[in-house]
Target: Tetratricopeptide repeat protein
Amino acid sequence: MEKLKTFFKSKTWRIIWGTLKLFISIPIFCVSVFYINKFLFSSNNKLFVFAGDTQGSFYSEFMFDRLLKSEPKNSKFWWESSVAYNKRGDFEEGMRRLNKANSLNATDHLGYTGWIKYTKLKDYENALKDFHRLDKLSNVVEYPWGENIYFQMGICYQGLGNYDSAIVYYDKFIASEKNPDNIYPRMYTYRGKIEADRKNYPKALDFYNKTIGLDKNIAEAYYYKAETYRLINQKDSAKVNYNKSLDLIRNNYKNQDAYDEVFLEIYDTEIQDKLKEL
Model:
């Protein structure tokens, strides 16, 4: 023990300790220089990319605040800065920033705003206002967050229980796509659900089968097909389709989102309960 105390007091230890501190401080210094350079000397475009890449972090918020002070009329900065707030559920701040983006450039940002309203807030009515406004402003078919605007409008109308308008926009979606391969198969499942709700069971089954004909791995089509068979008291057919849906869910063939409940989402436990009732 005495030898150890003597060693820590020795010149050799001071050299070793000094070297270790140097090795530790160099990376910290380099990282500090990197961020200082980013904050002070990068162009706004580079800062924008970096802020987006580090979305949700302290650095991202700091950089967006700086960018917005530098260019308060840049709609892209307002829009991108809203994303992290909406992802973590701070919709008041997220929508405040989105509304500012829309006041500066509605055509570029109304689609995302409508998408946020119907996917995260389930505010179908106000989402439709944004989509209708965007559709009037634009001279092309828009694809908010990657999906045809008319398809999304159909979902919103269906979510509100306005089935006639939902069908109008689902049909408009089909008509707007020149390539039939671009029609989302699950749209026919949604159409089937409308017919089932109207007690048009044979027509509902036709739509579910159309989905399956286009893609055999859509769990929702089998689930709602099973539901329809259950309603018309065809229990064996219902059981087959419930089990098929359950199998697809367990193999990750389910429409889902990490952040939100998706439209007409189905659940493993719900199907198991339905099977027990048959």
Summary: Residues 185-278 form a domain with the Serine Threonine Protein Phosphatase 5, Tetratricopeptide repeat fold (CATH 1.25.40.10). The radius of gyration is 27 Å. The mean pLDDT is 87. Residues 10 and 32 are 33 Å apart (CA to CA).
